[in-house]
């Protein structure tokens, strides 16, 4: 019989996703077939599965930790905010539509059968399901038709571990107050508290733990320190986007960087996981820029994906960021990914009101026009690109006429290997320049035999629809070598002789982090208690 355990939090960003990922790895290490599940996720970082379905990346991380391939049934409802009041609603990997918060709340009850169908499909194949809640179970105004926190715990008959974030302060109030606001039958489902993100000597907490237990007899299953584990984060709450990750002039190893990569921090930035691999490259300092002056010294500028291309282009225009990027054009490479690619074009047209409606002038750095359609493109892809292959000097052009292009259809031509996924509502047509890449779809039952153009290149400006393109070591090396050559740095520099190659295996790195996370949790959690809770003996 399948067992389940649920991680809930006293608030958003209490560490539920990390804790769930860690338990997935621990149960896998202990010989169980384990799967993650989160009934509803609100996130702009999403992923496309092998069968072309969309899901939140938090459950992708947890699936990787469990050693299994991600499936959309692990996250049956995904909400992708498009504005302050509305979100695109994705159910079991497919777009249902865009709804206001009020409209979505009214339709929630009708989604419960879909959620449970997804859950039961996992029950049939796995020994343990690690369930992640969302937000806080104490949001009593949202209790009706809840299928995310205690409502889901009841539907799946799952014991609950409630995590509080001590780093924000008031953790005892968080835990006690959350439990106090629950109904009695809900409170009984909490089998243990977890105190997360602790800095210092845990002995200091001992008196408080005793007093908490006297007030509410729920044991504390562990005090988890602030972990130095590098997993993917969720959206705007990520510290990667905060001041702690601003340009320092140093790479991740603490050495002076020769290449400063500025990623524009758009208000509705999506899939910033595209740049995690670049953060680890020796000699590269990647930072997120939210003010125009922050791009002044950049050696490479990236405009990332966004859930609202037209809205974020307006922000770039009004904030002065567009003018700052245009001033750098011709002197440094500029790249757009997905929505960023659309922004770099000449025109955006939205006749169906998918985003803002009407039409809008783009930045004009690429000879492309984008037409927003009602249908969403979602597929995994693989192919080849000649990204930065000619490594021209600043101010020189790069085109198919001077050696950039693949030649012919490009399907059999040589180039840097690239893979990733497409996820966009727009269709973009190119009237000049050259393709960024040639790609094949590899979602569904197998790799497509047909090959098609992706993106556009003109001069030192690049655009692509492929998320995750920098996960390829070949693409990382291309960027590293280009920036090194522009600074007159040879491969014999200290970054190379110190044993740091200019590329990085993201897959191997993730595995190291999952193992590290599991070790840390085993050290600080009472796993005997957690196994008794899992077996419903505690």
TrEMBL record:
GO molecular function, one term: ABC-type vitamin B12 transporter activity
Record keywords, A-Z: Cobalamin biosynthesis, Glutamine amidotransferase
GO BP term (any one): cobalamin biosynthetic process
Organism whose genome encodes this protein: Candidatus Copromonas faecavium (nom. illeg.)
Keyword Lipoprotein among UniProt keywords: no
Transmembrane segments: none
Domain (CobQ/CobB/MinD/ParA nucleotide binding): residue spans on this chain: 5-228
InterPro entries in alphabetical order: Class_I_gatase-like, CobQ/CobB/MinD/ParA_Nub-bd_dom, CobQ_GATase1, CobQ_N, CobQ_synth, GATase_3, P-loop_NTPase
Chain's gene name: cobQ
Keyword presence, Membrane: no
Pathway(s) it belongs to: Cofactor biosynthesis; adenosylcobalamin biosynthesis
Family the UniProt entry places it in: Belongs to the CobB/CobQ family. CobQ subfamily.
Name this protein carries in UniProt: Cobyric acid synthase
Protein's job: Catalyzes amidations at positions B, D, E, and G on adenosylcobyrinic A,C-diamide. NH(2) groups are provided by glutamine, and one molecule of ATP is hydrogenolyzed for each amidation.
Name of one Pfam family that matches: CbiA
